[in-house]
Amino acid sequence: MGSGKTTLGEALGRVAGDVSSFLPIGCRYIDLDDCIEQRVGMSVRQFFQERGEREFRRLEAEIIRELGVSDDIIIGCGGGTPCHSGNMDWMNAHGVTVFLDASESVLLRRLLEGQEQRPLLAGFTPDELAAFISAKLRERKRWYGMAQMRLDSDRLESPGEIADTVEEFCRMINRSGMFENFNR
After folding, report:
1. 4 Cβ contact list (under 8 Å, min separation 6)
2. How many structural domains compose the chain?
3. Which of 57, 66, 101, 169 could, after both became Cys, cross-link 84 (CB 3.0–4.6 A)?
4. How confident is the model at residue 108 (pLDDT cuts 50, 70, 90)?
5. E-strand spans in 4-124?
6. 122 is in which domain, residue-wise?
7. Domain of residue 23, CATH code
8. Interatomic CA distance for residues 95 and 39, integer angstroms
9. Closest CA to 35 of 11, 12, 68
């Protein structure tokens, strides 16, 4: 939450079809939460409330494995995705993983700015939200550290910084060889 996944993903979606981009033509960005919502016909929040986190994590792992058999997609995962169901090991074995690393202060600012759009954070005071962020990062550090690449997402602020970060991301992915068998 707040690392810049949507900002980066939407920017990638805009450049992926561009012949001059660093990604293959036809490559697309897919948000895992959007896929889950389409599959179940309800919001992630509603799904959590009605069916619980255990069922959500089961479905999340199922969908990520379905999507992961395609070599022309970039999947944007939620912050908890790598921490459950052996997902990080599976993603590392079947693709290239990138940790969007944002500082606690940037995460706090972004989440406070968008708190109304994030029902799970409703009612948090700034101090409570800061403690929540810190606890989640400590809890998830082990899995985030398993990512094959790290991208500083503090820079996802202005259009120019977003463009620079997208270019850096595309170069990283290209160097990884992820698309070496994909026709450009």
Report:
1. 100, 102, 110, 153, 156
2. 1
3. 57
4. very high
5. 28-31, 73-76, 98-101
6. 5-173
7. 3.40.50.300
8. 23
9. 68
